Amino acid sequence: MPPSPQTRIIVALDVASAEAALALADRLDPAQCRVKVGKELFTRAGPVVVEQLVSRGLDVFLDLKYHDIPNTVAGACAAAADLGVWMLNVHAAGGLAMMQAARERLAQTAAPPLLIAVTVLTSLDTDDLAAIGCAGNPRDRVQTLAELALQAGLDGLVCSPQEVAVLRERFGPQPLLVTPGVRPADTASGDQKRTMTPAEAIAAGADHLVIGRPITAAPDPMAAVEAIRAELSALPAGSA
Ligand SMILES: O=c1ccn([C@@H]2O[C@H](COP(=O)(O)O)[C@@H](O)[C@H]2O)c(=O)[nH]1
């Protein structure tokens, strides 16, 4: 079942302190969005800030993109589950055994979070892939990594909105498709190279939109969330 329109938006709390993250979170309505803790906030504030966000009733996506040997990643996933997060991720490029080990260890936890795999970072285009020795375009590489992640039994994928339609066509409605690289009209792309608007991403079949700077840098972050929700509500019934 697709998530309700209210909870499709995941706000990336890419800020430099627990205080800033909690102040931002206090301006958000947990009924209307979820939050994401990534490398900057986690490295500055540690696991405590995750627990503080969870205790405020927010669903937390822990976006640490684990990529290591299977035993290490499995242990990190178990530690993340103990924090009470709603979802976490690994890099699909870590390989099948790594993803299987993560999934198996999470299955042993009391309340396993959703586990998804990053395919190709949304900041990379074909030239960037070539520079790191990967021939081909992001669209093909995303599909190869998606196949591996789903073979490992993961719940879904992180991809750019530009690959959502092809992934839906190939893998059907089941995998959760979580898309950063989302830019409301008239907002700056910054370092994101494979982008679409929120409405385009949802219409293509995305389940969740990860949006950081267009919300966190807005004068009123909750108003920015509401504007995106309004954009999604205007989509034809069934797509949002
Ligand atoms: O491929 C990826 C995977 C993760 N991210 C993360 O999403 C947010 C996007 O923030 P914006 O400010 O909306 O660009 C950020 O936390 C990234 O670490 C991604 O962008 N692309």
From TrEMBL:
<keyword id="KW-0210">Decarboxylase</keyword>
<dbReference type="InterPro" id="IPR047596">
    <property type="entry name" value="OMPdecase_bac"/>
</dbReference>
<dbReference type="InterPro" id="IPR014732">
    <property type="entry name" value="OMPdecase"/>
</dbReference>
<dbReference type="InterPro" id="IPR011060">
    <property type="entry name" value="RibuloseP-bd_barrel"/>
</dbReference>
<feature type="binding site">
    <location>
        <position position="36"/>
    </location>
    <ligand>
        <name>substrate</name>
    </ligand>
</feature>
<feature type="active site" description="For OMPdecase activity">
    <location>
        <position position="63"/>
    </location>
</feature>
<feature type="binding site">
    <location>
        <position position="122"/>
    </location>
    <ligand>
        <name>substrate</name>
    </ligand>
</feature>
<dbReference type="GO" id="GO:0006207">
    <property type="term" value="P:'de novo' pyrimidine nucleobase biosynthetic process"/>
</dbReference>
<dbReference type="GO" id="GO:0005829">
    <property type="term" value="C:cytosol"/>
</dbReference>
<feature type="active site" description="Proton donor">
    <location>
        <position position="65"/>
    </location>
</feature>
<feature type="binding site">
    <location>
        <begin position="63"/>
        <end position="72"/>
    </location>
    <ligand>
        <name>substrate</name>
    </ligand>
</feature>
<feature type="binding site">
    <location>
        <position position="14"/>
    </location>
    <ligand>
        <name>substrate</name>
    </ligand>
</feature>
<feature type="binding site">
    <location>
        <position position="192"/>
    </location>
    <ligand>
        <name>substrate</name>
    </ligand>
</feature>
<comment type="subunit">
    <text>Homodimer.</text>
</comment>
<feature type="binding site">
    <location>
        <position position="213"/>
    </location>
    <ligand>
        <name>substrate</name>
    </ligand>
</feature>
<comment type="pathway">
    <text>Pyrimidine metabolism; UMP biosynthesis via de novo pathway; UMP from orotate: step 2/2.</text>
</comment>
<comment type="function">
    <text>Catalyzes the decarboxylation of orotidine 5'-monophosphate (OMP) to uridine 5'-monophosphate (UMP).</text>
</comment>
<dbReference type="GO" id="GO:0044205">
    <property type="term" value="P:'de novo' UMP biosynthetic process"/>
</dbReference>
<feature type="binding site">
    <location>
        <position position="212"/>
    </location>
    <ligand>
        <name>substrate</name>
    </ligand>
</feature>
<dbReference type="InterPro" id="IPR013785">
    <property type="entry name" value="Aldolase_TIM"/>
</dbReference>
<keyword id="KW-0456">Lyase</keyword>
<feature type="domain" description="Orotidine 5'-phosphate decarboxylase">
    <location>
        <begin position="8"/>
        <end position="228"/>
    </location>
</feature>
<feature type="active site" description="For OMPdecase activity">
    <location>
        <position position="65"/>
    </location>
</feature>
<protein>
    <recommendedName>
        <fullName>Orotidine 5'-phosphate decarboxylase</fullName>
        <ecNumber>4.1.1.23</ecNumber>
    </recommendedName>
</protein>
<dbReference type="InterPro" id="IPR001754">
    <property type="entry name" value="OMPdeCOase_dom"/>
</dbReference>
<dbReference type="InterPro" id="IPR018089">
    <property type="entry name" value="OMPdecase_AS"/>
</dbReference>
<keyword id="KW-0665">Pyrimidine biosynthesis</keyword>
<comment type="similarity">
    <text>Belongs to the OMP decarboxylase family. Type 1 subfamily.</text>
</comment>
<dbReference type="Pfam" id="PF00215">
    <property type="entry name" value="OMPdecase"/>
</dbReference>
<dbReference type="GO" id="GO:0004590">
    <property type="term" value="F:orotidine-5'-phosphate decarboxylase activity"/>
</dbReference>
<feature type="binding site">
    <location>
        <position position="183"/>
    </location>
    <ligand>
        <name>substrate</name>
    </ligand>
</feature>
<feature type="active site" description="For OMPdecase activity">
    <location>
        <position position="68"/>
    </location>
</feature>
